[in-house]
Write a structure and sequence with these properties.
Layout: H1 2-34, H2 43-67, H3 83-107, E1 112-115, H4 121-154, H5 156-173, H6 178-199, H7 203-218, E2 228-231, H8 237-274
Antiparallel strand pairs: 1-2
Helix pairs in contact: 1-2, 1-4, 2-4, 3-7, 3-8, 4-5, 4-6, 4-7, 5-6, 6-7, 6-8
Length: about 280
């Protein structure tokens, strides 16, 4: 019995080491490639950055699944005929999430959204493409091979926590505060990760992730102005930030639970079909 436990622990550690090596390689590639872009990066450059790092992340995924003797489908990275539809579903869910968040934030009374379009149709299209490419890189780097590999060894929530911690760490290194990394990036990782596990693919979480970031850009909260601008009355900045973060966490946690329930139901259905 002790030998079996020791063998199991050794296998788990080997899995964790391979996953950490994968995520480290993705992070190094991001650092090297982003270093070739100007600091004042525009959405057009963001698109090419996202595409370049996505290609690297996909290449690493192909290499590591071969190392593990599994397939791209096993980590959700295989494109099938339903992938475009699932991507659209993810975009739609993400659009609902960011809309609800914006309305709730405004309902709090600390911020209002003022229509101040500073981008034309071309600018909007480029921004959407840019955030799609960035979302593809992040989902491949975190919620594809790493999450699905650890899930097979440690289960859903242990793998979720491990990947969310590394996801938060990358964003912390990228300039986020501890509060933003933990209550923002990590919570977002739990949602996108649960979507990956529940749908057994990356198309839905890529769409959701892209829609959220694109929606933030439209609201003027990311880089160059989009179509709206948040107006906060002087003296209410801290309250507005706290309320917005709380609304974000409640909405994201609720959606994560929704995907978890979907996963449990579909998982039981698969088991019944197999029996």
């Amino acid at each position: 019995m002790a030998d079996a436990d020791g063998t199991s622990a050794t296998k788990t550690w080997r899995v964790l080491i391979r996953v950490i090596l994968f995520m480290f390689a993705c992070a190094v590639a991001l650092a090297i490639i982003s270093g070739r872009f100007p600091k004042a990066i525009e959405n057009r450059d963001v698109f090419w950055l996202g595409m370049a790092t996505s290609v690297v992340a996909f290449g690493l995924t192909a290499l590591f699944v071969r190392w593990d003797s599994v397939s791209l489908a096993d980590v959700g990275a295989l494109m099938v005929r339903w992938t475009p539809i699932r991507l659209l579903v993810g975009l739609a869910i993400g659009a609902v999430i960011v809309t609800v968040w914006a309305l709730v934030s405004a309902a709090g009374g600390y911020v209002r959204w003022k229509w101040e379009p500073d981008a034309d149709f071309t600018g909007v299209a480029i921004a959407l493409a840019a955030y799609l490419s960035l979302a593809m890189r992040e989902e491949l780097a975190f919620h594809g091979y790493p999450l699905r590999t650890v899930e097979r060894s440690l289960g859903v929530w242990s793998s979720q926590i491990i990947v969310a911690a590394v996801f938060a760490l990358e964003h912390l290194i990228g300039g986020m505060t501890w509060i933003q990394a933990v209550f923002g990036a990590a919570v977002g990782s739990l949602l996108f990760g649960m979507a990956s596990i529940a749908t057994r693919g990356l198309a839905v979480p890529i769409g959701m992730h892209a829609a959220w970031n694109f929606g933030q850009w439209l609201l003027g909260l990311k880089g160059p102005p989009g179509l709206w601008r948040g107006v906060v009355e002087p003296g209410n900045e801290t309250l507005a930030e706290v309320f917005a973060m709380a609304a974000y966490d409640v909405i994201f946690v609720a959606t994560t639970i929704g995907f978890w329930i979907y996963f449990r139901r579909t998982g039981n259905s698969r088991a019944d079909a197999a029996n």
